[in-house]
Amino acid sequence: MKKNLLMWDETLFRDPEVLEIDYVPDQFEFRDAQMRELSFQIRPGLRGGRPLNTICKGLPGTGKTTSIRKLFAEIEETTKKLVPVYINCQIDNTKFAIISQIYKKLAGHLPPSSGTSFKQVFDAVARLLVKEEIVLLVALDDANYLLYENEINKVLYTLLRSHETYEGTRIGVIVIVSDLDVDLSRAVDARVASVFRPTEIYFPPYENAEIKDIMKARVMQGLFQGVLSEELLNLVVEQTLKSGDLRVGIDLLKRATLSAERAARRSIGREDICGAYEVSKYLHLSYTIKTLKEEERMILKSFAERSAKEHEMNAGDVYKSVKESLSLGYTRFYEIVKKLDAMRLINLQYRNGKGRTRIITLRYDPSKVLEYLA
């Protein structure tokens, strides 16, 4: 009798790394035009000049980060005189944290964690750039987080006007934005705008056929033959389109494969995909909550608890219930509310009545928000 069950040491994965959402594929499809524009923008840096500043804009999961990582890998293989530095602004979203990451790239280690001022760290960065005749190219991924923290002007001013204080420094910036409502050219102040002058490169959502080709390539590289049928590949594509985020589809494939392995089956079933989607569709919620500060988590928790009883919440009423426990002024509270709205965790709307009332609704099931907060 033919065995259909997996042995304990067998696997459905040919290469599990291929189904990680931060994997950079060798063949990167459907972004040739954007890659050509990016290459043009950084070309002066390869010749010793200052790279042109760029904004990469598009919804989450449209290939922005992968494009930058591919480009940076090519730069590092080509030259030592143009040094690319990738910054994840969800994690490093202050001026000091960003300059510390740049220092780490140039010096090989982070600056001392205490007793070191921002000026000392940036002085050291500038000296290294001038001494080694290095051109610096900084990518600020998810730079909209710098806007939420009111850090964008400080960071860009420091980088783009460095040559005025440190003669001989040449720094270019690539700003990656996933919030289409953000107009960064207008969001920065006049001091920054005069030296920023970016070219905007748009990354449109992937179309149905493109998502299928990308997923098919991942399946062929990441899974053994016969693990996923054509019919169920179409279901994965359908679920990915529903979410509007390619990363959800990749995470879905990984979870569905693990589900089939756990059940000791040699192929993925419909139940594996449907079950995996119930987790993967909350990918944005999971990742975003991890970036929140403690007071932001507490306010989101308050929204989720109230939302279980009332769909629409009055911002003023919520503030009254949290101000004492958080020792929070209304201005700071409202800044956090606007940030949660920009991060697509809540909807903030205005309603005219007795004055202008701010109405808050949760974008996700309250129980799921509380689950991920826990």
Helix and strand layout, with pairings?
Blueprint: H1 32-46, E1 54-57, H2 64-78, E2 82-88, H3 95-107, H4 118-131, E3 135-141, H5 144-148, H6 152-160, H7 162-165, E4 170-177, H8 184-187, H9 190-196, E5 199-202, H10 208-222, H11 230-243, H12 246-262, H13 270-280, H14 283-290, H15 294-307, E6 313-314, H16 315-326, H17 330-342, E7 346-353, E8 355-362, H18 366-373
Parallel strand pairs: 1-4, 1-5, 2-3, 3-4
Antiparallel strand pairs: 6-8, 7-8
Helix pairs in contact: 1-2, 3-4, 6-9, 10-11, 10-12, 11-12, 12-13, 15-18
CATH level 1 name of the largest domain: Alpha Beta
Number of helices, where a helix is a run of at least 4 consecutive DSSP H or I residues? 18
> What is the averaged pLDDT score?
93
Task: Let me know the CATH homologous superfamily of the largest domain.
Answer: P-loop containing nucleotide triphosphate hydrolases
Main β-sheet: number of strands, strand sense, barrel status? Answer: 5 strands, parallel
**CATH architectural category of the largest domain:** 3-Layer(aba) Sandwich
Q: Can you list the strand order of the major beta sheet?
A: 2-3-4-1-5
SSE arrangement, N to C? HEHEHHEHHHEHHEHHHHHHEHHEEH
What separation lies between the terminal Cα atoms? 47 Å
Residue windows where pLDDT falls under 50 for at least 5 positions: none
Radius of gyration (Å):
23 Å
Structural domain tally: 3
